[in-house]
Amino acid sequence: MWHIMQKFSRKLGSMTDFPQIKVALQNVIYNSLTPVEFEEGWAEVVETFKLKEAKESYKWLVGLYNQREMWIPAYVKHIFWAGMQTTQRVESINSFFDGYLKKNTRLYQFAPRYCKAMESRANDEKAADVNCCRFTRSLVGEFAVERKFQKLYTDAKFVEVQIQCMRVCYVTPITSKVVSDVEVEHTVSDKVWVWSKFLRKEISLAGRKRIYVVLFNKETSFAKCDCKHFECHGIMCRHIIKVLDVEDVENVPVGYIVDRWRKDIQRKHTLVKVAYHDPEKTEEVKRYDRIMNAVEPAALRGSLSEQKLDLVIEGIMNIVLRLDESDALSAFGDNEAGALTSGGNRMAIVGTTTPGSVNKPPNSVGDDTTTLTPLLWLKILFRAVV
Ligand SMILES: [Zn+2]
To answer: Domain SWIM-type spans what residues (predicted)?
Structure first.
């Protein structure tokens, strides 16, 4: 999209009303909420500025219009962009490599510099994680949503939640009507917020307001807004926050909690050694590597047949059960090592039904020929790990 907008002056610059045409097209492209709104706005700009008369330029615009489902925000708002703005994607990647890659960077220099940039990003992430654990940002209001995400989200994402909470004061409920046994349709009025390239932040357009429709489900307490902010960015919009407040919803539905923004979930990629990030300095990562090395041969052989797959899955599920048991005992202050080596516990686990043992009768103590097979496998596995 950024590349297309850059071409506007080259393709349309010869037209007499170019500055006004550019503003009108940008307004339709960035501020249309739905495909219908975009198509009507586009047709209006074409009509107002008589764009059809500029044959070559109009031909280029028709080409863009025909591919509108690929790049116009109103068509891609339902797609999750992991927090990236449509206008920021390219800029973000550019600034990411600033200082590491230049247009005259040679091919042999590319790989080490790329690794350096990625290492720097990994270290920044680590520092941000540490900060999230040490500091908690204060609340700006009394919304249940804000309290919930203060506890759950990383600081950067909590700031985005707070921005939506602060803008709730501009949201005014207009109507509410019951549309089915469980659904209520709310309409709310709100300011129009647009991204300012110069201020590098969202600003409200003076005197401009628009109506948003929020469909609230009374059974699940989940609401959907036609601004599609949650679907696109993973952050609840101010309209949904307002409707949940109006409907007296105190507990934020779990559907709004996006795991990738949570500070209490360790990102698994931090355990994987890659060229640009050498986490081998930590004992945790060393252990993780040893486990992966030990598991790989079993995974390869297990994939050869359904029978072998069952065996591997059963073995892994037994390990998980033993780890759960170990965690539970640790929580009560018992000796973990003692629990893991206890014969009685081991037999209890072997007799447990696991996903891998579907279609197989539960193991009995007397007939342990087959029950010992996964156990032997486990022993081999652990020997390899240790
Ligand atoms: Zn909304």
So the answer is: 212-248
Do 110 and 11 sit in the same domain of this protein? no
- Domain enclosing residue 318, as ranges: 282-385
Nearest to 219 by CA among 182, 253, 246: 182
* CA–CA separation, 243 and 241 (whole Å): 6
For 177-223, write each residue's pLDDT tens digit: 999 999 999 999 999 887 776 777 788 877 788 899 999 999 999 99
The three-state (H, E, C) secondary structure of 98-130, written as one string: CCCCCCCCCHHHHHHHHHHHHHHHHHHHHHHHH
Give the whole-angstrom CA distance, residue 66 versus residue 25. 15
Q: Could you report the per-residue pLDDT of 142-172, keeping only the tens digit for each?
A: 888 999 999 899 888 999 999 999 999 999 9
Dist. CA 68 → ligand 1 center (Å): 23
Domain boundary among 55, 76, 97: 76
Q: How far is the CA of 236 from the centre of ligand 1 (A)?
A: 8
In a domain, 28, yes or no: yes
Give the whole-angstrom CA distance, residue 48 versus residue 42. 10
- Cβ count within 10 A of residue 160: 18
